[in-house]
Amino acid sequence: MSIEQEVFGSGVAVVTGAGAGIGSGIARRLGQLGMHVVVTDIAGDRAEAVAAAIRAQGGRAEAQTLDVSRPAELDRLAADLFRRHGAVKLLVNNAGIETIGFSWEVPAERWETTLNVNIHGAVHGVRAFVPHMLKAGQPAWIANLASVGSFGVMPTQTAYIMSKHAVQSFSECLFLELQMAKAPIRVSSVIPGMLKTSIFDEAGGKGEPPAASHHRKVMRELMSTYGMDLDEGCQRIVAQIAEGRFWVSTQPEMTTGMIAGRVDFLTRQTDPTLSEQARHLLES
Ligand SMILES: NC(=O)c1ccc[n+]([C@@H]2O[C@H](COP(=O)([O-])OP(=O)(O)OC[C@H]3O[C@@H](n4cnc5c(N)ncnc54)[C@H](O)[C@@H]3O)[C@@H](O)[C@H]2O)c1
What we know:
The protein is an alpha/beta fold. It has a single domain, classed as Rossmann fold. The chain is about 55% helix and about 15% strand. It is built from 10 helices and 7 strands. It has helices at about 5-10, 20-35, 45-55, 70-85, 110-135, 160-180, 210-225, 230-240, 250-270, 275-284, and strands at about 10-15, 35-40, 60-65, 90-95, 140-145, 185-190, 245-250. A 7-stranded parallel sheet has the order 3-2-1-4-5-6-7, sandwiched between helices. The protein is globular. The chain starts with a helix and ends with a helix. The relative contact order is 0.13. Nicotinamide-adenine-dinucleotide binds near residues 17, 23, 192 and 198.
């Protein structure tokens, strides 16, 4: 039996933002392995479609409408699931959105939404679920979606990049806190390189400036040309979480490349500079 089958062959998993993209891929993979998957998304119809697809393959899944930027909704879901199932083995804080534009041009509302979904979504997922996990006293796993962007910078994707730096440091501190508390809970920082998803499809709110629309279009094309197949990437993610790794990468060479660039920048303490790829992207 493979480690992932052994670890994730049973029990309850909760995946946020699982109505599309990486969340849906992770949910489908967990369903194949035999978990009861709670497929959650702000778009309830999309969550239901993914849950139905898991059930159609012989798996077990339920859909829940959940906006991760509303802490009370996460509290309610955690209480309900522990009451009904007794335990949640895996929580994947996956929901995240992109936002593009000069920092001073992104509307206040979009800044709030981006930071709330990307940072507070993971924070309040942990705050809502961990006390129940500790009480249940069974081994559990938490995976937070960071990004290769957690280790670099990209002007005009500032809100997103900032949020991913924050999620990475949150996961590192959380790992150590759970160790201090002697909790049987593993934390993984999931670092997708680039997987084919719809993250660049939606307009960044009303009145997106033309330069931001252009940037979004270029990123979308890059993703569809060079992105990794979604299911392949999600299988890699689930396998590494099951192995209990803190660092979970879909394309490890991208992760190490970004980290090497960051280490060099922090060591030399020069002014920030654009990487070759970023320059190419922004000048295209
Ligand atoms: N696709 C990549 O290459 C890539 C790379 C690095 C990191 N990531 C991270 O992976 C995660 C998933 O990204 P994706 O590419 O699959 O995106 P996606 O846009 O394809 O899917 C995101 C899902 O999250 C849902 N969502 C949005 N706001 C929500 C909210 N407030 N509450 C609950 N659900 C909400 C959307 O409805 C959608 O179904 C994100 O955290 C993203 O930052 C993705």
